[in-house]
Design goal:
Length: 291
């Protein structure tokens, strides 16, 4: 009898321990999601850390149609809805501190056609049928990479509209004196910085240290100009930064009429930034930590 009671208690304690473990895991996952660099725009999410855009579309089957045909027609409607939603999400993507993608789409029919073609090339990553027969469809669009939005807007007919007006300036280190860092993390928390496709970094005298014009977007494996993270520890885990990233703290944000996207480094941070291996800059091995 006593053995049975002991066994029952052990099972209860084991179950309690398992529940506690599950709670801790779920809490950890939730915290990780909160720290992720996700920006909600309309019916889409921009993952600035991994350089991806996710958009959802919905489609209902037509009345009087059932079976496989109804599902097929609902899927087509969901796909069309996702494309429409994606166009709205892309319009809300920041290009720099002053403009969004929508500003360029409104200025040029050519750019509008290019962006529409980009949406048509989206990858379907999930299709789910709800209880009422409605299809929920999720598409994925790359911010970076050879086929991504960053490279797309770098095309000659578009680039001149979004290239920085300031002269490019970068003091490459002399042979043999560059610091042995594989990337750079710039801590910009508490500065009100927002993620963008083409952020810039300036020194304390206003010279341009980092911009899209300095990055080799044609190289294999290119992602985005800058990756974003919620903490330095999360930034360190980004593959693009290698095993030994330099960590700097931004001095201030560049004042802007719109939202702030660009950073200013102080004297010591500028000195360290300029000693980076040129490959760090060319490869875009740069991350901003923002709130």
């Amino acid at each position: 009898m006593k053995q049975g009671v002991v066994a029952t208690r052990k099972r209860k304690y084991s179950l309690l321990a398992l529940l506690c473990l599950l709670f801790l895991v779920m809490t950890s996952l939730a915290r990780g999601q909160d720290e992720g660099m996700i920006e909600e725009v309309g019916l889409g999410r921009i993952d600035w850390g991994n350089g991806l855009i996710y958009v959802v579309g919905y489609g209902a089957p037509p009345k009087g149609v059932s079976g496989p045909q109804a599902r097929l027609m609902a899927r087509g409607a969901a796909k069309a809805d996702a494309y429409r939603n994606a166009a709205e999400v892309l319009n809300g993507v920041r290009v720099n501190s002053e403009t969004y993608v929508r500003n360029y789409v409104m200025q040029s029919d050519e750019i509008r056609v290019v962006v529409e073609g980009f949406v048509q090339g989206a990858r379907i990553i999930n299709v789910n049928q709800l209880l009422d027969g409605t299809i929920e469809l999720t598409i994925e669009l790359p911010l970076g990479g050879q086929a991504g939005l960053t490279s797309l807007l770098n095309r000659p007919e578009i680039a001149e509209r979004i290239s920085p007006s300031s002269p490019a300036f970068y003091e490459y280190p002399a042979t043999g004196v560059s610091a042995p860092y594989t990337g750079v993390i710039i801590d910009a928390r508490n500065l009100g910085i927002k993620p963008a496709l083409y952020p810039q970094v300036f020194d304390y005298e206003g010279n341009l240290l980092y911009a899209a014009t300095m990055v080799n977007m044609a190289r294999p494996g290119f992602t985005t100009i800058v990756a974003y993270a919620r903490s330095v520890d999360l930034a360190r885990n980004l593959p693009r930064l290698g095993t030994n990233p330099l960590v700097l703290t931004a001095d201030s944000a560049v004042p802007a009429e719109g939202e702030r996207t660009d950073l200013v480094l102080g004297v010591e941070a500028t000195r360290q930034f300029r000693r980076l291996n040129p490959e760090v800059i060319k490869n875009g091995a740069v991350a901003f930590v923002i709130d």
